């Protein structure tokens, strides 16, 4: 029996490096899937990117069908319904590779994620049989319709209504949905509406339904090749057998689907960031100023190195979480009629990690594309260079799948709720820390101790928040966002270190040298940022002698001798420049 860690439990104990999944653990099958997906993007997507961006008639359906022929649309769909039923690492690999595909990544993600997973997890056998095989082959294109003009982050505020027809055979839907990906060509919509105005419920709506129409294509900053339209429902008749899951429990469907959607978006962001670094490194090697490649200039080295460091941390977090999800799903019996719901519940255990991945990866790619443009100089501002498109496309990632602000709020709230239920030992950990502080704490030595210190800094800070606001802490978003940043930074630091530590144990220090450099650079640079975040938060929570005492505790937790991160970055940049892309 697999000993499965609780979601969020990383803060409260030590993790065995050998227990986490890393990209170094890819099987031959994983590598084959990587090559297949990456090859498809390189050969079929990037060679036709201008056609995609101009929304050439029929091109998206053509490419989705080609994608389906390679098995890249059915990774999370059971074999019974013509899917590939791959493990979570394989579907993560596909999502990462699609991150290089620009607009097509959104189309493919809508098809394989939010446009189909509600049926996979919550549909009955008949619904799955009618819709999933077509989604796997791209005979049917899926879309997810939740957002409305007046209901974005507050999904429960939707106004779309569903009323049962007098003969009891249909629900009549009326309302408007906004920013719906794939809307212009979708054959199947997952639509959320309120039955009788208050029962939040999910429906499967056929795209050719009478009364269903779409507005014009949105004119967007980026991802221009993906279809984004308003969906209009005007007395649309939906057969009662197309009600998904249960009346009044649509929020269960919506929130569970978002967990996986956030995780997959992190994978897209990782692939996108690697592409940006590859473009920047290649350009820096080729571009000469003062008769010297700019890749040899110190400030350019810093940029390339920092891009690689953030990518390494994001990659380590992502596949560590993928391993948690896979182990969870492997431990469950999903063979019965309720198998999908059981799987969704299992994934929910790591909702907190999914949110952390989403925030970290989308902000990492934002950094990478921005610095990618900077490395290109004036050419980076020209649409003739690919980095310009990557810059525009990446911006929406921090908005998709719940804004990063919403996800930041969810992280500490989820931790507190689970602690209140007894699932996480928050109060015990706080009491233990108080005892350690009273006894005195030695200066930190080495990255493993800095990771532990980061956990303790989070505990010190959330304790101060609870002391001031108690159960009303959830009402103070400024504090919640900073607590989230402490939790995310700690998870990223630990993931980076565990991966390097595991590599050293398995491959030896020489082969793991670059991973060690990346982990040490990330941890040493991030730790000081977390200390500053904690200082700022404590100053907002206390004053006078209480604040002085808290800051003294923080100082005792954060004493350490920093490494020479400038030298580490020079070594990292040299490796990136030599390869012309991200390497570990």
What does this structure look like?
With about 575 residues, this protein is an alpha+beta fold. It has four domains: about 10-140, Orthogonal Bundle (Butyryl-Coa Dehydrogenase, subunit A, domain 1); about 145-245, Beta Barrel (Butyryl-CoA Dehydrogenase, subunit A, domain 2), CATH 2.40.110; about 250-405, Butyryl-CoA Dehydrogenase, subunit A, domain 3 (Up-down Bundle), CATH 1.20.140; about 415-580, Butyryl-CoA Dehydrogenase, subunit A, domain 3. Helix content is about 55%, strand content about 10%. Strand 4 and strand 5 (about 200-205) form a beta hairpin. Helix 8 packs antiparallel against helix 12, helix 14 crosses helix 15 (about 445-470) and helix 17 (about 515-540) packs antiparallel against helix 18 (about 545-555). The chain starts with about 25 loop residues before the first helix and ends in a 5-residue tail after the last helix.
What's the number of helices?
Answer: 19
Describe the largest sheet.
8 strands, mixed
Structural class of the helices, strands and pairings?
alpha+beta
Give the rounded overall mean pLDDT.
Answer: 97
Q: CATH topology of the largest domain, what is it called?
A: Butyryl-CoA Dehydrogenase, subunit A, domain 3
Radius of gyration, taken over Cα atoms and rounded to an integer in Å? 24 Å
H/E order of the elements? HHHHHHHEEEEEEEEHEEHHHHHHHHHHH
Helical fraction? 55-70%
Overall shape: globular
Question: How many structural domains are formed by the residues?
Answer: 4
CATH superfamily of the largest domain: Butyryl-CoA Dehydrogenase, subunit A, domain 3
Provide the β-strand percentage band.
5-15%
Q: Mind telling me the CATH class of the largest domain?
A: Mainly Alpha
Low-confidence parts lasting 5 or more residues at pLDDT below 50?
none
* Extended strand count: 10
How far apart the termini lie comes to 33 Å
CATH architecture of the largest domain: Up-down Bundle
């Amino acid at each position: 029996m697999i000993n499965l860690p609780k979601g969020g439990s990383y803060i409260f104990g030590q993790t065995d490096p050998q227990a986490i999944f890393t990209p170094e653990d890819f099987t031959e099958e994983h590598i084959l899937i990587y090559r297949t997906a990456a090859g498809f993007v390189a050969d079929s997507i990037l060679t036709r990117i201008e056609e995609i961006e101009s929304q050439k008639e029929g091109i998206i359906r053509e490419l989705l069908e080609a994608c389906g022929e390679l098995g890249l649309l059915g990774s999370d769909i059971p074999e019974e319904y013509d899917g590939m039923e791959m493990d979570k690492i394989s579907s993560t690999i596909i999502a990462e590779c699609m991150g290089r595909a620009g607009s097509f990544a959104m189309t493919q993600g809508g098809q394989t994620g939010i446009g189909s997973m509600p049926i996979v997890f919550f549909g009955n056998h008949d619904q799955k049989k009618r819709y999933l095989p077509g989604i796997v082959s791209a005979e049917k294109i899926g879309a997810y319709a939740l957002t409305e003009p007046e209901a974005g982050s507050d999904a429960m505020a939707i106004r779309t209504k569903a009323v049962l027809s007098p003969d009891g055979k249909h629900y009549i839907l009326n309302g408007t949905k906004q920013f719906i990906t794939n809307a212009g060509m979708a054959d199947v919509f997952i639509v959320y509406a309120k039955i009788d105005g208050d029962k939040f419920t999910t429906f499967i709506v056929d795209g050719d339904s009478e009364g269903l129409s779409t507005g014009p294509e949105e004119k967007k900053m980026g991802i221009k090749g993906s279809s984004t339209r308003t969906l209009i429902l005007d007395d649309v008749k939906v057969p009662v057998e197309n009600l998904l899951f249960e009346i009044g429990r649509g929020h269960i469907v919506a929130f569970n689907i978002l967990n996986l959607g956030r995780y997959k978006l992190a994978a897209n962001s990782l692939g996108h960031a690697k592409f940006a670094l590859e473009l920047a490194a290649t350009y820096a090697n080729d571009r000469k100023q003062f008769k010297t490649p700019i890749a040899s200039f110190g400030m350019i080295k810093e940029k390339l190195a920092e891009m690689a460091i953030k990518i390494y941390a994001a990659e380590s977090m992502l596949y560590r979480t993928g391993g948690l999800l896979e182990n969870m799903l492997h431990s469950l019996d999903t063979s019965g009629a309720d198998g999908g719901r059981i799987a969704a519940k299992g994934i929910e255990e790591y909702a907190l990690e999914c949110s952390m991945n989403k925030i970290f990866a989308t902000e990492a790619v934002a950094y990478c594309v921005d610095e990618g443009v900077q490395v290109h100089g004036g050419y980076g501002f020209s649409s003739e260079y690919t980095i310009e498109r990557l810059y525009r496309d990446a911006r929406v990632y921090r908005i998709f799948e719940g804004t990063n602000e919403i996800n930041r709020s969810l992280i500490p709230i989820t931790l507190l709720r689970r602690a209140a239920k007894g699932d996480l030992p928050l109060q015990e950990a706080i009491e233990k820390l108080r005892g350690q502080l009273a006894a005195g704490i030695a200066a930190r030595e080495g990255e493993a101790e800095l990771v532990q210190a980061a956990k303790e800094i989070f505990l010190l800070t959330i304790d101060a928040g609870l002391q001031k606001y108690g159960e009303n802490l959830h009402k103070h978003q400024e504090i919640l966002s900073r607590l989230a940043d402490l939790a995310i930074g700690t998870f990223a630091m630990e993931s980076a270190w565990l991966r390097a530590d595991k590599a050293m144990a398995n491959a030896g220090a020489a082969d793991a040298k670059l991973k060690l450099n990346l982990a040490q650079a990330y941890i040493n640079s991030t730790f000081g940022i977390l200390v500053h975040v904690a200082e700022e938060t404590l100053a907002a929570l206390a004053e006078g002698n209480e604040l002085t005492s808290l800051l003294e505790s923080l100082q005792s937790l954060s004493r350490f001798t920093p490494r020479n991160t400038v030298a580490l970055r020079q070594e990292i940049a040299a490796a990136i420049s030599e390869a012309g892309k991200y390497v570990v």
